[in-house]
UniProtKB/TrEMBL annotation:
It is found in: Cell membrane. The chain crosses the membrane at residues 37-58, 65-89, 101-132, 144-164, 184-204, 234-256, 262-282, 289-307, 313-332. It is a multi-pass membrane protein. Keywords: Cell membrane, Membrane, Transmembrane, Transmembrane helix. It holds the Pfam family BPD_transp_2. This is ABC transporter permease.
């Protein structure tokens, strides 16, 4: 048996492997690549850009502040991910956060117990999510209409019970939650990390996660296989409400008061983070780490533009452009 020489033709298997390996240009032009890695590439690009143009961006103090600011959005994006995975959307998310903050302030002022106030927040916002899910599934009403209606109703309810006035919340627990830290990260960051881990396990390592993605991918086929799609959707909206409650607690802890005002950027950025994270707007395809990185990217964008003294009027424009581009990528992938 003679050894192959340098001029001998390559084996068919080797040739097939070379042909199947995509070039860098083909990879960059593939919408699937950007759908999966848009948030990571965007975050790395922003870190490099702002690190060069504004060195203070990479300072330890600024990075810690950035992570603290991103914690609330990360939690909200997780809740939105479960809903979008069922091919739905939760427009009442920011209103639920506002109502949760108002309830926390009022219950704390009435009883003085922060634990009871936090429990009341979680119960109330989860109930809103449950209501959304029940109306959508049993009433057969489009999710856009239902959550738009609850957004308006919740906003009015929050203004009525609060009288439109903010409530100061003086709590040692909340103060420590906002300013305390364990290791390199503040407590809100650890809360966000815990939420990411729990949500990842629920989505990828439980029967519920399988049923959730099946329901979003093809509800009729999932129902034919015995999956109770209505219950899955109700659970997804309830999880979204639960995450809104956690975000409300973190928000009150951060600002020290319960403000009866909706921060619409929380809703828009939660959807933006989900899209940037590669979650399909058509349902059936989702991740948890992707939206979390997307939330970090959006927070880094706003932080960097602020350090560069860019007018706050341009910041929503930048976020909007990024969201539209990400949505176009998802559309081509579909």
């Amino acid at each position: 048996m003679s050894l192959p020489t340098d001029n001998a033709p390559a084996s068919p298997q080797a040739g097939a492997m070379e042909e199947s390996r995509p070039s860098l240009a083909a990879l960059l032009l593939d919408p699937s690549f950007w759908a999966d890695w848009a948030s990571v590439v965007g975050l790395v690009g922003l870190v490099i850009l702002f690190g060069i143009t504004q060195p203070v961006f990479l300072s330890v103090a600024n990075l810690q502040a950035l992570l603290l600011a991103a914690a609330i959005l990360v939690v909200l994006s997780i809740g939105q991910t479960f809903v979008v995975a069922t091919s739905g959307i939760d427009l009442s998310l920011a209103a639920s956060v506002m109502l949760g903050a108002v309830i926390l302030g009022l219950v704390h002022a009435a009883s003085g117990g922060v634990l009871a106030a936090c429990v009341a927040v979680i119960v109330a916002t989860s109930a809103i999510g449950l209501l959304n899910g029940v109306l959508i599934t049993t009433g057969r009403i489009p999710d856009f209409v239902v959550t738009l209606g609850t957004l308006s109703g919740i906003t009015g309810l929050g203004l009525i019970i609060s009288g439109g006035e903010p409530t100061m919340v003086g709590s040692t627990f909340l103060l420590k939650l906002a300013s305390g830290s364990f290791g390199p990260f503040g407590y809100p960051v650890w809360v966000a990390i815990a939420a990411v881990v729990v949500a990842h396990v629920a989505l990828y390592h439980t029967r519920f996660g399988v049923h959730l993605l099946a329901t979003g991918g093809q509800a009729e086929s999932a129902a034919a296989l015995g999956i109770r799609t209505d219950r899955v959707k109700i659970a997804a909206y309830t999880i979204s409400g639960f995450c809104a409650g956690i975000a409300a607690i973190l928000l009150v802890a951060r600002i020290g008061s319960a403000e009866p005002q909706i921060n619409t950027s929380l809703l828009l950025n939660s959807v933006a983070a989900v899209v940037l994270g590669g979650v399909s707007l058509f349902g059936g395809r989702a991740s948890i780490l992707g939206p979390a990185i997307g939330a970090l990217m959006l927070t880094a964008l706003v932080n960097g533009l602020t350090l560069l003294s860019v007018s706050a009027f341009y910041q929503p424009l930048a976020v909007g452009v990024i969201v539209v581009l990400a949505a176009l990528i998802m559309r081509y992938q579909k």
